Amino acid sequence: MNKVLDLPAGYYLDWGGTFENQQRANRRLMIIVPVTVLLVFFLLYTTFNSFKHALLVILNLPFAFTGGIVAIWLSGLYLSVPASVGFIALFGVAVLNGLVLISYINQLRQNGLGLQEAILTGCEKRLRPVSMTALVTMLGLVPLVFATGVGSEIQKPLAVVVIGGLFSSTILTLLVLPALYGWFEKDKEESIT
Question: 18-192 adopts what CATH topology?
Answer without folding.
Answer: Multidrug efflux transporter AcrB transmembrane fold (1.20.1640)
